[in-house]
């Protein structure tokens, strides 16, 4: 026979170890109450918990559940609750006899009451031994309740955080929208002011106009900062890496700020590493923006001395390189205590400085976000009164050469342009800029008017606003494309305020050829109009029965060839030419097969490929021939296509021969 | 109560007696216990079970008992003259058995004196069923029943229900007849306590962080003076069940029936954290306990005289007692009271005084 006291210890220990296994109150009670009941030889158990606020007791767990129907248990619960809430001193445990059972009740500290029902009385002093178990159960219940409170609080915090982030995004979106809305008319003011400045004005009028322009530019910069930062905050900023000529970008920046620095009497220096590669791959517009922000600050805070920009490309790991740029100045410098929050938004050194120098306090925050978005790093050091040194490093690719020249030679603009734009202000600005370029402009105020206009007259180019009431630019473009073969290659350039990648992709998918960001920038407008007017005669006005237009172009365009030789290394150029000869031979064979089979559709792809490659190398006759062939095949102009297919093979041979002759030193 | 014994291994005889009971106007349901040694397949009973106009419930068991004798073939049956409501749980794996019980057999104002419960003794869901029964029906009725099947623990259809003979199922019959229930086993601890440090359902993996069989083997071999190496596991283990410590009452017995990779498979769940003892019993003590169970049943029956005795006894208890088992059957008998019963794979009993549990190696006497 086992020792009774030992068994008692075993049972009590088993019960003790079953308490607090889970932090979920329900699970915890479901786990330990059966052990209480079975181990102590009971037949029922109940845990009543007291609501901390209203003081009511509610049964949290009753074993068995069916005991809820047991009147004796209810009587015992009622009595225990009465005594507990009235603050009376009662025997612990409280013993209540009801309906053939004895019920024992223990207070669970401040949390509630435990009741155990038995068919006979506990042997003394066993029920005294239960006391510590009840205390442990009370602590476990408290732990569960605290855990639950924490869980609820955590959920509430997460919800509040989500709402705050959502509100912040909404704010950013609002700011971005408003900034854009402000920028549009402001840009109109600036563009029209520039145009006005080119008219006959007296000195006083010039001074007044310069004031308008400089104030407007300052305001535009502020709005641009807010717009950029809002886009960053709203997660809408995109980074589009592409290969570009680093030197050209730096030249542009140097020209802009060098002039201003010189006017301010500062020594302005650009130190470029002699080993700097010609071509790197990163997002050039963001790089330019970072440099603008840093140099704007340097210029703003430096009254005498120098501004120095140092540029180098470093190897950071095998195959990994980074562009490192340092901008130093001898300006007012930044006290150490102000340096910590320098890259945070709305940070300004103090209100006095703010008044003196102006600004949004967003410039360096934008720099930090841009560098972060480009996976780079940045830092600064400064000494008050002596100057500042800002640096940033961006991972770049340097191995990918540019395979095409930046642009074809642009003919002088001047053409018949349909401007589809509903905003009178934008109409006025665009018309003024286009007329300045020598273009004839017809205005359509809606998509419907645009469709009618192109049917009345064949334009060289359509500039199509995207957001218009009624029929938008996307739908108008699609409908124009469906008007017939003559409209398939009519150049249509989107004018979109939302220059995100997906917007641009949507424009191209809708059948547009290019896009312009709004508000319109004079240089960019000129660039795009020039490019499309140059290609318009072949694309828009195919002359199926006329003499071959390509024959009027040179086999090789010397200016493009010169640019290629200047912008690339001899090794790269040799690879490009070899690749061209190989590819154009293969595409020529494909065209021959298409001619044999009289399969015009099969000729579209190789003709397009030849056009692209030939244009890149300045093989202008071949470029125009392939372009005409592609158009003729797409439009199913069989006679023209057949003639061009016959002509293009000897033209390819002729072009290859010219290339080999021209590049003999490198090939 | 109409109590009938069919001695012959004959489907026809069993059916004949069942039809005879069904035809009686004072019989409203039939408890049927069939011995597993009969030559006919269990499914042969299906047509009668499914088409009977009154519920027939019970099980197939290793042996049936009648008037102090044990039979490996034949059947015993009891025609109940009280109202009988019934439910079949044919999917014990389902999520909430409690909800199923509430739906199929609610404890309303109908018959609610005695709940006959028979379950497939090889089911892994017996503990879940027991917990659901206790939560659903609580302390307001008497429970009596046990595990169906064969002594070899071979899975087979063995639960007799109005829907046929089913496997991995349970049948519940809530009868309006008054009853008294007594439970006792007589096993005594021969060891100290061992903490169950690892367990998985019915399997004890380790005791005091030592493989369970190692601990068990040392105690048993030392006490028995015999080795597990020299005999089959069950031959030696049948005399040495585990006891789970409990205050004021006999320990709850768990019967180890198989050794698997150092762990011990028991009939019924053993919870991690429980303390177990190795138990042993002398025939006289076990028989005395059975007699005590009969006396407890009579005491709990109360005011009137019972008309029949239902004796539910563990098959491994009879194996342990061997020839002495007839003395146990004699010990529980009460003068002038017909006795029927079966050897079961685990016993279910409660008289509203205790936590409902599955017992092993235990004598359960029900008086009706």
Summarize the structure.
The complex is a heterodimer of chains A (667) and B (368). With 667 residues, chain A is α/β, with parallel strands linked by helices.
Layout of helices and strands, plus pairs?
The complex is a heterodimer of chains A (667) and B (368).
Chain A: H1 4-18, H2 25-39, E1 44-50, E2 57-63, H3 71-85, E3 94-98, E4 101-108, E5 112-118, H4 126-197, H5 203-233, E6 242-245, H6 246-263, E7 267-272, E8 279-282, H7 284-301, E9 306-317, E10 320-329, H8 336-339, H9 351-357, H10 363-373, E11 377-383, E12 387-396, E13 416-420, H11 424-436, E14 440-444, H12 447-456, E15 461-465, H13 473-481, E16 492-496, H14 501-509, E17 514-517, H15 522-540, H16 558-567, H17 570-597, H18 600-617, H19 620-634, H20 638-662
Parallel strand pairs in A: 7-9, 13-14, 13-15, 15-16, 16-17
Antiparallel strand pairs in A: 1-2, 1-5, 3-4, 4-5, 6-8, 9-10, 10-12, 11-12
Chain B: E1 2-6, H1 11-22, E2 29-35, H2 46-51, E3 56-61, E4 63-66, E5 69-71, E6 75-80, E7 84-89, H3 97-104, E8 114-120, H4 126-137, E9 142-148, E10 159-161, E11 164-166, E12 170-175, E13 180-184, E14 188-189, E15 194-200, E16 203-207, E17 210-211, H5 212-224, H6 233-237, E18 242-244, E19 252-260, E20 263-267, E21 275-280, H7 283-301, E22 309-314, H8 315-321, H9 325-332, E23 339-344, E24 347-350, E25 357-359, E26 363-367
Helix pairs in contact in B: 3-4, 7-9
Description:
The complex is a heterodimer of chains A (667) and B (368). Chain A has 20 helices and 17 strands. Chain A has helices spanning 4-18, 25-39, 71-85, 126-197, 203-233, 246-263, 284-301, 336-339, 351-357, 363-373, 424-436, 447-456, 473-481, 501-509, 522-540, 558-567, 570-597, 600-617, 620-634, 638-662; strands at 44-50, 57-63, 94-98, 101-108, 112-118, 242-245, 267-272, 279-282, 306-317, 320-329, 377-383, 387-396, 416-420, 440-444, 461-465, 492-496, 514-517. In chain A, helix 14 links the parallel strand 16 (492-496) and strand 17. In chain A, helix 6 packs parallel to helix 7, helix 17 packs antiparallel against helix 18 (600-617) and helix 18 (600-617) runs antiparallel to helix 19. Chain A is elongated, with a radius of gyration of 40 Å. Helices cover 24% and strands 36% of the residues of chain B. In chain B, the strands form four sheets. Chain B has a six-stranded mixed β-sheet. In chain B, strands 5-4-23-22-26-13 form a six-stranded mixed β-sheet. Chain B has a six-stranded mixed β-sheet with strand order 7-12-8-9-24-25. The termini of chain B are close together. Chains A and B meet through helix 1 and helix 2 of A and helix 4 and strand 14 of B.
């Amino acid at each position: 026979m086992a020792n009774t006291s030992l068994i008692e210890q075993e049972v009590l220990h088993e019960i003790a170890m079953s308490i607090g296994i889970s932090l979920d109150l329900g699970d915890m009670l479901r786990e330990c109450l059966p052990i209480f009941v079975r181990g102590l030889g009971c037949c029922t158990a109940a845990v009543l918990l007291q609501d901390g606020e209203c003081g009511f007791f509610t049964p949290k767990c009753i074993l068995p559940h069916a005991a809820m129907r047991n009147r004796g248990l209810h009587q015992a619960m009622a009595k225990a609750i009465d005594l507990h809430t009235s603050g009376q001193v009662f025997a612990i445990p409280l013993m209540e006899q009801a309906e053939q059972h004895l019920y024992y009740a223990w207070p669970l500290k401040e949390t509630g009451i435990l009741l155990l029902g038995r068919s006979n009385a506990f042997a003394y002093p066993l029920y005294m031994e239960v006391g510590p178990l009840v205390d442990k159960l009370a602590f476990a219940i408290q732990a569960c309740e605290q855990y639950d409170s924490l869980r609820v609080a955590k959920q509430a915090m997460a919800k509040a955080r989500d709402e705050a982030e959502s509100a912040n995004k909404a704010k950013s979106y609002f700011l971005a929208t408003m900034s854009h809305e402000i920028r549009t008319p402001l840009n109109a003011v600036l563009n029209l002011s520039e145009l006005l400045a080119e008219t006959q004005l007296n000195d006083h009028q010039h001074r007044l106009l310069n004031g308008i322009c400089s104030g407007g530019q300052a305001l535009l910069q502020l709005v641009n900062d807010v717009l950029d930062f809002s886009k960053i905050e709203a997660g809408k900023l995109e980074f589009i890496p592409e290969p570009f000529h680093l030197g050209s970008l730096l030249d542009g920046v140097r020209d802009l700020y060098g002039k201003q620095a010189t006017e301010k009497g500062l020594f302005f220096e650009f130190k470029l590493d002699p080993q700097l590669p010609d071509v790197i791959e990163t997002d050039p517009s963001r790089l330019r923006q970072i440099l603008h922000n840093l140099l704007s600050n340097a210029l703003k805070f430096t009254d005498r001395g120098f501004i120095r920009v140092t540029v180098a490309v470093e190897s950071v790991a095998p195959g990994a390189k980074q562009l490192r740029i340092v901008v130093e100045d001898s300006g007012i410098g930044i006290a150490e205590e102000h340096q910590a929050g320098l890259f945070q938004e709305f940070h300004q050194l103090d209100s006095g400085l703010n008044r003196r120098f102006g600004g949004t306090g967003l410039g360096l925050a934008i720099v930090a976000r841009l560098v972060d978005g480009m996976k780079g790093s940045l830092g600064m050091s400064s000494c008050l009164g002596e100057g500042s040194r800002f640096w940033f490093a961006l991972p770049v690719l340097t191995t990918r050469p540019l395979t095409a020249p930046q642009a074809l030679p642009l003919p002088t603009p001047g053409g018949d342009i349909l401007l589809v734009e509903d905003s009178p202000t934008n109409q006025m600005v665009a018309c003024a800029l286009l007329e300045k370029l020598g273009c004839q402009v017809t205005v359509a105020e809606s998509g419907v008017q645009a469709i009618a206009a192109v049917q009345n007259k064949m334009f060289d180019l359509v500039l199509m606003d995207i957001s218009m009431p009624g029929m938008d630019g996307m739908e108008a473009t699609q409908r124009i494309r469906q008007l017939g073969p003559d409209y398939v290659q009519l150049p249509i350039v989107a004018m979109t305020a939302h220059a995100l990648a997906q917007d641009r992709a949507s424009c191209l998918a809708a059948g547009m050829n290019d896009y312009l960001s709004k508000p319109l920038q004079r240089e960019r407008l000129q660039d795009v109009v020039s490019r499309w007017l140059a290609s318009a005669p072949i694309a828009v006005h195919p002359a199926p029965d006329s003499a071959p237009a390509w024959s009027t172009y040179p086999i090789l365009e010397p200016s493009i060839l010169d640019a290629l030789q200047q912008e690339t290394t001899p090794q790269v150029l040799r690879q490009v030419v070899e690749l061209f000869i190989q590819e154009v031979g293969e595409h020529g064979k494909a065209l021959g097969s298409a001619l044999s089979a009289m399969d015009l559709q099969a000729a579209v792809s190789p003709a397009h490929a030849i056009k692209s490659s030939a244009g890149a190398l300045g093989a202008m006759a071949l470029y125009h021939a392939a372009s005409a062939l592609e158009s003729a095949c797409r439009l199913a102009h069989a006679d023209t296509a057949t003639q061009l297919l016959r002509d293009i093979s000897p033209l390819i041979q002729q072009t290859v021969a010219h290339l080999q002759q021209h590049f003999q030193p490198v090939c | 109560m109409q109590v009938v014994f069919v001695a012959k291994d004959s489907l026809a005889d069993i059916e004949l007696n069942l039809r005879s009971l069904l035809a009686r106007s004072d019989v409203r349901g039939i408890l049927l216990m069939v011995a597993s040694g009969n030559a006919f397949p269990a499914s042969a009973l299906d047509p009668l079970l499914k088409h009977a106009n009154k519920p027939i419930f019970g099980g197939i068991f290793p042996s049936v008992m009648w008037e102090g004798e044990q039979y490996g073939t034949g059947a015993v049956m009891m025609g109940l003259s009280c109202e009988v409501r019934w439910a079949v749980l044919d999917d014990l794996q389902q999520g909430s058995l409690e909800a199923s019980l509430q739906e199929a057999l609610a404890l309303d104002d109908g018959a609610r004196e005695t709940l006959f419960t028979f379950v497939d003794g090889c089911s892994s869901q017996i503990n879940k069923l027991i917990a659901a029964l206790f939560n659903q029906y609580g302390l307001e009725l008497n429970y009596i029943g046990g595990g169906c099947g064969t002594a070899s623990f071979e899975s087979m259809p063995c639960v007799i229900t109005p829907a046929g003979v089913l496997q991995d199922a349970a049948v519940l019959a809530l009868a309006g007849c008054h009853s008294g229930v007594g439970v006792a086993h007589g096993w005594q601890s021969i060891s100290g306590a061992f903490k169950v440090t690892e367990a998985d359902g019915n399997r004890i993996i380790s005791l005091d962080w030592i493989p369970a069989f190692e601990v068990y083997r040392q105690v048993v071999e030392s006490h028995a003076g015999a080795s597990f190496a020299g005999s089959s596991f069950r031959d030696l283990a049948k005399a040495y069940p585990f006891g789970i410590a409990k205050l004021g009452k006999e320990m709850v017995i768990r019967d180890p029936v198989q050794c698997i990779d150092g762990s011990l498979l028991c009939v019924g769940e053993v919870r991690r954290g429980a303390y177990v003892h190795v138990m042993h019993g002398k025939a006289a003590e076990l028989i005395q306990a059975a007699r005590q169970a009969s006396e407890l049943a009579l005491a709990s029956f109360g005011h009137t005289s019972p008309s029949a005795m239902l004796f539910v006894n563990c098959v491994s208890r009879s194996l342990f007692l061997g020839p002495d088992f007839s003395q146990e059957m004699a010990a529980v008998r009460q003068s002038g009271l017909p006795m029927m019963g079966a050897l079961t794979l685990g016993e279910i009993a409660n008289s509203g005084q205790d936590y409902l549990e599955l017992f092993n190696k235990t004598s359960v006497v029900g008086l009706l």
